Amino acid sequence: MQHWRLDDLISAQSNNTKLAEALKLIQPRATSGSLAANDNFEFAELCQFRKIFLQEVDDTIVGSEPFPGEMLTPCRNRVALPDNIYQILTDYYNNAYELQFVTIADSILNSSGNSIVVPNMVEQFGRVRIAAEIFGSAMSSRYLKNAFVLAKFIQNDGTTDLFPGQVQYYFEHTIRILGESKTHRLAFIRWYRKVTDWRIRFYTRIDENEESSNIELWQNDFCDLSRDCLIPIHYIYSRFVSCKFETGKKKIVAYKAVIPINRQFHL
Amino acid sequence: MSTKTRNKVRCDCKTCNGRLVDERTRNKHAELENRLASRVSGFEPANNPLFSNSSITNPSATPDQSNITNTTLDVDYGPVIEGSESRNLPNDANYEPVFVDFEQHNIPQKKRRRQNQFRETEVILDDQHNEVSNSSSGESFDRSVNKDESESDIPSDNDDLFLSDNEIPVEQFTAPDYDSNSESEYPDTNIRFADSWILVWLFKYQARFRLSDVAIDALIKFFQQVLKDADQARFEKFPSSAYTARKLLQFGKRSKIYAVCPSCNTLYSTAKVVAEEGFKCTHIEFPMRSKTKPCGMELTIPNPLTYQDKRRPKLLFPLPNLKIQINSLYQRPGFEQQLQKWINRNIDEELMADIFDGKIWKIFPSESAPFFTPETADRHLGIMINLDWFQPFESSVYSCGAIYGVICNLSREVRFRKENMLTLGLLPGPNEVKLHKINHYLSPIVDELLEFWNGVEIPAAGKNIRLALICCSNDIPAARKLCGHISASVSCHRCYKRANSSGNKLNFGGFDDMDDWFIERNLEEHRQNAENWRLCKSEEERKSHVSSTLARWTELLRLPYFNPIRYLVVDPMHCLFLGIARWIIKKLWIDGNKITKRDLEKMEKRAKTITLPANIGRLPNKIATGEGFSGFTADQWKTFILIYAIPLMWDLLAKPDQKILGNFARACSLLVGRIINYNALNEAHERLLKVATLIEENYGPEMITPNLHLCLHIADCCRDYGPLYSFWCYSFERMNGILGKLLCKCFIYYIYYY
């Protein structure tokens, strides 16, 4: 009751700068914890993301699009990428744009005029907030438990599938393309290896129906590095909880159980 | 000792009884007596049916008469209010005409509506009375509805009322009228003190850091000293204590407070109860019987802190003023834009993302004339209410209830913020209210809602605001009290399924004939049964009426648009997680020895190896202690089902149990999404049905609890109100405990300031 009256009085004096200044001192702190999930969580953003996940957006996402969120600490400024990842990055640009991109080394070897040289310097980040959810990475062990993510890929046969992986780090990479400076936000992810037998993968299915399985089993080790290891952060689908899962009675085989968390971006 | 001699005079007041006292004392006593007398007389115009011989309100609906009552109230207002409420002098000249205008428009309307309500029931009585022999109640109901439509002008209402003098009265739940004066008064925001912003800041500071009144009192005193030291002339009027500061800023009790009978929960106006010595409850539960005694419970206890025989009511029911709450919401900058946000959403037909995509929002109250349209978005509000009992004090058993309202027009991310929640009523303890007695508390709330349904002029909005109750989200016992349904273990409130009594326990088994009972109940039938409940002449008759017709009277039925069947949703939090999940795991598997103690220990060990991301509440590491899963909260059950259940338990279960778990986990994970489409909804429904049939197959029909039946209605509720996020009780009470704590604090706060 007193609150309402106070709010009345404050709104009546809204042009009083002295009061406005003083009130700033006692602003309540931003909510933390899971309640904060509801702050800044706008419906329109959610909808846009949903479209990207379902790949309903026609344009290819290249990573320079704006996204609802921010890169978070820990960060390292101006880090040189290792050679193998640098090569992957160049391949990534070649795929994303229909232009020719070369590494610095290649540009020295065969300097053709119309190729774009990819710089080697990136800003590296340990965490990223997308909408209301914070994704961690293996870059710092503190955020390792938030580093397991799922992403959707279109496979060679045209079907889409969710793949689990562990984010190593996020980075911002700025490049001049056709006279325009663009910043791409990408994630470097190591993907888990698929189990060949689908009966193992959907071990907890009911009535031989793949859809009914809540969790999936994957191998406990990573795939080799490939171009797919770099994806725009827009494509990150959700986090998952990983846990050890043993199958078999005599010969016990351990797998990685992938339990998607559908609190935020569940579609 | 003073040596001055004074003339003693005779005092005729009650306490002195003719003793010789000081003249000033005599005057004081005389004044007190006058005041008490005027208090009583001040309430006489208020038409309290319990005190007039018949159950009839004063037929003072004609405008001129109501004006008279209005003026008499005005005269009496001063003394009545003194001491109990701070007086609000409208010192802004511009404000007053509006205020008067508002009054005159409002009062006749309100009176009329209340009469409508009386008339409606009494007309039925009339018919019933004449046709007792053939008891064609259905027919009489139809007729009363017809009458209802044809009679719209006030004079005929009055005729009706005069005629129905010697009717059988029914139990009245109506709260006494409060002074209409204080009710519709919006405080004015002009303070005659230039530096009031300092005080505003201080009180804001107190609220922010939850400081005690003593602390803030000292702070104000210190400020006074400092400021006076700085500029004696300018801060001449700076208040010297928290009390005077409050007075200056006009913090008043702006809620109505009723005294409550602890035995039958009837409401009385506090002033009347305190004024009359030894006031006893006069409520008669069955007025149609000739020899019935009133309740007779004493309402007051002596106030230990004062001398003399001042008394205070045992129980109080504060009713926060809805108009002021709405008014202050509209005062907030940007509030109207927030109300309109939902119009500019583009979403395809297949998806449901919020309550606006549900059917109710689109077709309320009828398909032809929707209430929620883009044009009226900032004027027509839809509210969802939640009634819950909780224990505000840790060390003592004392549960009190609260009725909260949420404005659904706001978008989901701001809707459940505490500053946007409305408080409709705070039910006093120490125990939960018994079944129909809650009607006493609901009555004044329904009065307010009715007023808002017809439109209330809110000065801050500058518009006529209408408000409709579109959803009730409660746990099962509260739902049943609120909407007047029979216990959920006897019959479902949404469909025609009734419990079977095979064996020694009631159950909801039997899904083969689902097409026969899975139909929404008939609203008209329910309404009529509820009306008939009021005619029952004894406790036993009421009981048998309820068990045969499944309906009980609830004051919410006075809202013309309210549908107690469809608008009462099954709360998914209580149903799925606290209900079914717990039932399956604890009763079926642990008690049924499917999961042994050793298995539980194994599960506990496995659970420890799973690390959860930071923002998901961890499970306590005590799955195996006690009987297993002791003290899990709703949120923990949710986490357990969605994440832990399958990897932990899969290989410990037999094939049919795996099926139950798999289906249930899948259904839950489909349902808890923030956006849900119709396909997923159908799949979830199929899976829940499968869980129920599997349990019946494997464990027998007596294991089908009400919750296992009610979960079949969740899909329907989803179609009506959008995804679970928009209506489940997590949002109200348990948003990971934070909101819950806040509500408790809020409650104590209310007790404190009223």
Plain-language structure description:
The complex is a heterodimer of chains A (267) and B (754). Chain A has 267 residues and is of the alpha+beta class. Helix content of chain A is 21%, strand content 34%. Chain A has a domain of 171 residues. Chain A contains six helices and twelve strands. The radius of gyration of chain A is 23 Å and the shape is globular. By secondary structure, chain B is of the alpha+beta class. Among the domains of chain B are: 54 residues, no CATH class; 62 residues, no CATH class; 155 residues, no CATH class. Chain B is built from 28 helices and 15 strands. In chain B, helix 23 packs antiparallel against helix 24. The longest helix of chain B is centred in the N-terminal third of the chain and has 36 residues. Chain B starts with 7 loop residues before the first strand and ends with a helix.
Q: Specify the oligomeric state.
A: heterodimer
Q: What would the average pLDDT of chain B be, to the nearest integer?
A: 70
Q: Indicate the percent of residues in helices of chain B.
A: 40-55%
For the residues shown, what is the average pLDDT of chain A? Answer: 78
What's the total count of β strands of chain B? 15
Overall structural class of chain A, as computed from helix and strand content, comes to alpha+beta
Major sheet description of chain A: 10 strands, antiparallel
Task: Note the beta-strand portion of chain A.
Answer: 25-35%
Report the end-to-end length of chain A measured between terminal Cα atoms: 41 Å
Q: Round the Cα radius of gyration of chain A to an integer and report it.
A: 23 Å
Count of helical stretches of chain B: 28
Bulk shape of chain B: globular
Order of helices and strands of chain A: HHHEHEHEEEEEEHEEEE
The low-confidence parts of chain A are: 32-40
Q: Care to count the β-strands of chain A?
A: 12
Distance between the termini of chain B: 41 Å
Categorize the overall geometry of chain A.
Answer: globular
The residue ranges of chain B in which pLDDT falls below 50 over 5 or more consecutive positions are 39-166, 180-184, 734-754
Percent helix range of chain A: 10-25%
Strand content of chain B: 5-15%
